[in-house]
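Morning F.,

Quick status update on the modeling queue. The single chain you submitted on Monday has been processed. Sequence for confirmation:
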Amino acid sequence: MAEHNSPPAASLQVLKGRVRVDLDEESQGEFGEGELWILTHERHSVLALEDSVFLLTTVTSQQGQDSRS
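Structure tokens below.
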């Protein structure tokens, strides 16, 4: 996944394989099966280092916001 903005809250759980999350040129993390990464509201990219499956969970609105607008 190319660099993109994250929603207000998100998590990425690796179900199979290994992925790398790049936050900027100096900050990154590698995650394998069973590991969970909490994504804060910042730009990032995700790269599969091998054949991988991950579960991405997002929050698309916050309390007090109308998600229909």
